Amino acid sequence: MASTRLSRTAGAPTLNTKYTISVWIKRAKLTGDGFILDGYVDASNRFKFAFQSANKLEIWNSHSGSNTFQILTNRVFQDTNGWYNIVLSVDTTQATDTNRVKLYVNGVQETDLATNNSPAINEANNVINESGATISIGDYYSGSNAFGGCMSHFHFVDGTAYDASNFGSTDSTTGEWEINTSPTLTYGNNGFFILKNDNVINDQSGNANNFTLSSGTLTKTEDCPSNVFATMNPLIRSSNGTFASGNNKFTTSGGAWGSGFTTLGMFNGQGKYYMEFKGASGTKIGYGISDFKASGVIQRTEAGETRYCGEYANSYAYHYGGNFYYSGSSTSTGYDSFTSSNVIGMAVDMDNLKIYFHKDGVYQDSKNPASNNGYTIVAPEGVYLPTITVEDAGAAANFGNGVFDTTAVSSAGTAASTPGIFEYDVPTGYQPLSTKGLNA
After folding, report:
1. Which terminus of the chain faces fewer neighbouring Cβ atoms within 10 Å, N or C?
2. What value does the mean pLDDT take over residues 401-415?
3. Would you give the DSSP letter of residue 138?
4. Whole-model pTM above 0.70?
5. Do 155 and 173 form a contact (C-beta atoms < 8 A)?
């Protein structure tokens, strides 16, 4: 929801000494201030809930120009694959000052804080719950510090301080923090619940505290706290390239090839996966897979690298000119050229070490997953990462979210057994590259 701001005006609070905020977020942009939530009356009366430029979480409330409380984490938030559940619980009536503001991340209270200034007892000048305050989600009220990424299950509770156990629980087998999709809460006058399983910003709490879309656009995604889909990874890339659209679009400039790689990988002997790609700008585009070594080194990502996917060892890619490149060799037999208007599907069979490509639903080189006759790939040293490789161009991936860049698929094909939306039919037995797909 980069450059997207939702807003509403707060009414009279039920109780402005207690409130709770809970939201699930997945980060995409790791630079600059990124506001999750903003409260604004005027320049001297503000509330900030944001990632600052060092990727630490900063929360403070300012009344008459002075902060009534302030939290800054030592923890940095740089994971662009998983979801964080962040809960802020405020109760200024607590006798012990350190109990008045509590911050939880994935169910665990944050106690290692760079700054932890507590509010005065019974402090009631909380801007985020003040009558007439402008409440903004996804950006600063003036639209200058957008959050980049996804948000889901955004709760605000007026008048009660809940802890994290109301919004999630720890899985007894995996130890992971899992979402509670329907918590029992008393929301109070200003309370709301939005972004529940979709991009609807009407309040689900029963209060009708609906938000309006003040700027930008909201794009529905299948990626959610209970099923994390692959994206391109901004922390690993070749020497040039930028990311956009929730890290599902990769673009290069400067006259050299660059490659972007995914957050999730595919292990030898573990599953079959399907994904789609579409050009966004330029013409020099390719899609494929690259080996991520067991040593933690991705093939050809060092500074100055200008070779494309398929040109180096243990990499395979279908390129715009109708060439299939593999480990430094190439063939043009049986492959059609493509442009940015074409959807390219890629099916990777890690059980049998085969790879297939289609152009607008037509599988290339007479190789079809239904026939189990794909091009043979070598077993990776570590895992294969889906790869976008471009020169002065951009391309977008659809790993099951049903969107290329910002445009939804035109007519969804047959889905896999694991949730996911694609333009064309998913081959039988193949899954999206997601946490559920990896465990199908």
Report:
1. C
2. 90
3. S
4. yes
5. no
Backbone φ and ψ of 368, nearest 5°: -135, 135
Q: How do residues 367-382 score in pLDDT, each as one tens digit? A: 999 999 999 999 998 8
Task: Return the SS3 of 98.
Answer: helix
Q: Which residues constitute the domain of residue 259? A: 232-438
Chain-centroid distance of CA 166 in Å reads: 23
225 part of a folded domain: no
Q: Are residues 375 and 365 in contact, defined by beta-carbon separation less than 8 angstroms?
A: yes
Q: Note whether 126 and 190 are same-domain residues.
A: yes
Residue 226 inside a domain? The answer is: no
pLDDT tens-digit map of 124-182: 999 999 999 999 999 998 888 899 999 999 999 999 999 999 999 999 888 899 999 99
Residue 84: both structure tokens together: 């964080």
Sign of the torsion angle spanned by Cα atoms 324, 330, 331, 336 = positive
Distance of CA 133 to the CA centre of its chain: 29
Asked if 276 and 422 touch (Cβ cutoff 8 Å), the reply is yes
Cα–Cα distance measured from residue 42 to residue 203, given in angstroms and rounded to the nearest whole number? 26
CA distance 304 to 238: 8
Domain boundary among 215, 243, 272: 215
Residues 85 and 18 in one domain: yes
152 with 243, same domain: the answer is no
Q: Are the CB atoms for 255 and 286 separated by under 8 Å?
A: no
Please tell me the total count of domains within the chain.
2
User: Could you tell me the CA-to-CA distances from 365 to 5, 10, 331 in Å, in that order?
Assistant: 47, 60, 10
Are 22 and 153 in contact, with CB atoms under 8 Å apart? yes
State which H helix or E strand residue 438 sits in: helix 435-438
Domain annotation covers residue 227: no
329 and 405 within one domain: yes
The answer to whether residues 58 and 52 touch, using CB atoms and an 8 Å cutoff, is yes
Is 60 exceeded by the pLDDT of residue 294?
A: no
Q: Are residues 255 and 159 in the same domain?
A: no
Which residues, in sequence order, are bridge partners of residue 274? 347
The neighbouring-strand residues paired with 61 are 47, 69
pLDDT at 299 over 50: no
Q: Is residue 37 part of a domain?
A: yes
**Which of 383, 362, 407, 361 is closest to 248 using CA atoms?**
407
Q: Which of residues 180, 215, 250 is at a domain's end?
A: 215
CATH number at residue 360: 2.60.120.920
